[in-house]
Amino acid sequence: MDKVSIKEDWPACSRIVHIAGGILATSEIQTDMVRLWPLTTNKKVYQVKIDTFGSLYGSLDNLKLDIIGVEFITHHMEFTGQAPTQFRGFIKQESIWPNWDASVLWSGLTLSAFHNKNGLAYDLSNRIKFQLQTINDRIKNLSLAYHQQLNARNLGTSFKDGQRFQDGYTNLVYQEFHSFLFDAGIMRDYLCEYIFNFANGGKLNKAIRQSLNNPKLEVTTASSLFKGLKKVASLTDLESNLKDIMSKEGWLYELGQYRDLVMHSTPINLANSQLYAIQEIIELPEGQKMMSVRFPLPENPSKLYSERSKRTSFDKYINQFKELSKLSLESRGKYDCLEYAHKVFGLISNLSLKVAKEAPYEPMKQGYLKTEEGYMPYVTSLYGY
C-alpha cells in the first residue's frame, strides 16, 4: 500500500466525493491519497494517488467512476457538525459546477433587482436562487440515501452481482428521489415564469399575450409557457430551445412526466410493477471489484400515467401478478434514479445560467469598506468592473 504524502502547499480542504451507486471517495486535508469506500470484494482498501489538488476528479474519471458531487470541508465548524459541509454537484456538461455558478449569479441578480427597485425581478431571482440551492441539497440527500443502502448491503453476509432486493432502506431512496422530482419541477416553473416576464427585453411577454388575445395573461408554469411559445411565430434561440426541450422527446418534458406520475398517480417504484433495488459489481483496475447499488426507473412515464389515469387496468396487478413479478426481477430500468436525477440537475442548472442572460440588470455583489466610522456597505458589479 502506497504511503500518504503531506502537501503543505495544497488548500486546507478535505473532500468527500459522492460517486454513482453509493460509493464514496475521501481525500483528507493536504494529503495525496484518495480512499474509496466500500472495501473491495476481497476486503481491501482501494487507494488512488493524486499528483495535484485538482487532479482528484480526473483520477476518479479514469477509473470510470461517475462523480455526483463533492463535499468540501474547509472550516472547523464543518468538521464538528456545527455547520453543514459545502456540497457542490459535479457535472460533465457545459459547465462542471453549473449549480454553484448559477447560485452565485442569481444571488447577484437578486441584489441588482433590489437596488433597481424591480419587485418582480427581485422576487423571482430570489426564488430561483433558493431553488438552485434546494436541488443541490436534494442531489446530496439522494446520494447519501444510496450510501446508506450500500452500507447496509455491505454489512450483509454476501453480495451477489445482479441480486434484486428490498429492505428498510429501499423505500427511503425512492422517497428522496420523489423529493428531487418535486423540487426540480418547481425550479422548472420558476425559470419559465422568469422567461415569460423578462426574455428578449420583455418582448416575449407581449407576443404571448397578443397571440393568445389575453392582455392580462400571467405565466407561472411550464405548461402555460409552452402553450404560449407554440403560438408565437418568431422566437429567439433561447425561446426556441426551450420550446424543443418542452416538446415530446425533450428532457424537460420527460422530467414533467416523471413528476406528474409521482405527484398525481403512484410512487415511481410501483408505477407498473414492483421495482427492486439491484446489487451491482463495479470493475476496477488490477482485477479489483467494488460493490454498488442501482435503483431502476420505469420507462415511458407518459404512457404509464395515461394508462393509470384511465383507471381501468388496476386488476392486472392481481390477474397478471406472476408475469409482472417476473418482469420486475428482470428489469434494470431505463435509468437509475441517481443517474437520472444527476443528469437533470446538470441540465436545469445549465439552463438557469442561460436564462440569467435575459435579466434586465447586470448582477451585483455586496462589499464592505473599512472606514474610521466602521465598515460601510457598498455594491459593485459581480464581475468586478
Write a structural description.
The protein has helices at residues 56-62, 76-80, 98-115, 119-154, 170-198, 203-211, 222-229, 237-246, 251-264, 301-310, 316-319, 321-330, 337-356, and strands at residues 14-19, 23-27, 33-37, 46-49, 67-73, 86-89, 164-165, 277-283, 289-294, 296-297, 335-336, 364-371, 374-381. By secondary structure, it is α+β, with helices and mostly antiparallel strands. The chain is flat. It folds into two domains: 1-90, no CATH class; 95-365, no CATH class. The N and C termini lie far apart (51 Å).
Concise overview:
With 385 residues, the chain is an alpha+beta fold. The chain has helices spanning 56-62, 76-80, 98-115, 119-154, 170-198, 203-211, 222-229, 237-246, 251-264, 301-310, 316-319, 321-330, 337-356; strands at 14-19, 23-27, 33-37, 46-49, 67-73, 86-89, 164-165, 277-283, 289-294, 296-297, 335-336, 364-371, 374-381. It folds into 2 domains: 1-90, no CATH class; 95-365, no CATH class.
- Helix fraction by DSSP (H/I, runs of at least 4): 40-55%
The strand order across the widest sheet is 4-3-2-1-5-6
- Mean of residue pLDDT? 91
Low-confidence spans: none
* Helix and strand pattern: EEEEHEHEHHEHHHHHEEEHHHEHEE
**What share of the residues does DSSP label as strand, in percent?**
15-25%
Q: Count the strands?
A: 13
- Would you tell me the structural class of the helices and strands? alpha+beta
Rg: 24 Å
Distance between the termini: 51 Å
The total number of structural domains is: 2
Q: Please count the helical segments.
A: 13
Largest sheet: 6 strands, antiparallel
Q: Shape, please?
A: flat
